[in-house]
Amino acid sequence: MAQRLGCRPSQLLDASASLVPFGLPWSARWALARADWRTYPDRSSQHLRVLLAGLHQLDPAMVLPGNGAAELFTWAARDAAAGGLSLLPQPGFADYGRALRSWGGAVRPVALPLQWEDAFPQPLPELGSGDVLWITNPHNPTGQLWSRASLEPLLDRYRLVICDEAFLPLVPGGERQSLIPLVAEHSNLVVIRSLTKLYGIAGVRLGYAVAGPERLSRWSRWRDPWPINAAATALAGALLEKPQAYQRWCRRVQRWCRVEARWMATQLEALPVLTPLPTSANYLLVRAEQSLLPLRERLEQRHRVLLRDCRSFEGLGERWLRIGLQSRAGNRRILRALRAELLQ
Ligand SMILES: Cc1ncc(COP(=O)(O)O)c(C=O)c1O
User: Which domains does the chain have, with CATH numbers?
Assistant: First the structure.
């Protein structure tokens, strides 16, 4: 994008991805700088499994680190394709479709209502029959937080439930809705998490799956050798070494998410053209009665501000944009750009 706009990447404000804007702790940067590049990493990532399991008080055999959550969707999709028809709530994250297509999996998109209350958690709407259900909690791109009480009965209705909780640790009160505590009792449940958003480390690639040990050892036999590289191993080792430090980080992130989501929604409501929708997460959808493509392009060209084009989300289109929350300074910059374009 920087090349296309003729600027340096550092001049862009990228609110099209939804990453926490804080800098990494120095201990983590230091660990990254000292990562052991020379040796092949431990193929089983045993130490990392122990650290991740410690965050959730789980047996390490129930946790499998992945090269980003995206790699783990590929293996979840292999099981899903073998299990029958996958239901994909739409608009939704496109990578589940990519993963399912790579195994020839049968898919039925299910439309979610495009209006919802400003109270979270809320029940997942009825989605109909199928074999495998893919849930995103909180949902992307809508920011809805689904209640655990509405998700739990689905474990008896579907052969396999795959719940993507990539954004859940960022959501105030989100952990109370997590399905991780149900995994030990339900062999048909897979929960996928990611460190990408929480620490703003999209380039490192680190996610993890929580599921039954048998399923995870099957996935381990399918994947490439050494899927978790030395940088990801070293960084995660430093970030997760002390569970209290992880909890403190999550609390800080959740405070930021609560304050900025509320503030940004109020500011956006005061603008013409755009209607912000309620969110529990660190991104919010805005809707308009007209195409927002020209606005998005002007924001890019004149202000170097990138918002998420929603044309790739089934059921949305040109009249929708998604904004990833930034630091207060970043959010002000987005608003200045919007005001300059909408109030002229
Ligand atoms: C809902 C959701 N899950 C997972 C991911 C991917 O996570 P990772 O970077 O760990 O592959 C994304 C990335 O945008 C996402 O939006």
Answer: 2-18+245-342 (3.90.1150.10), 34-241 (3.40.640.10)
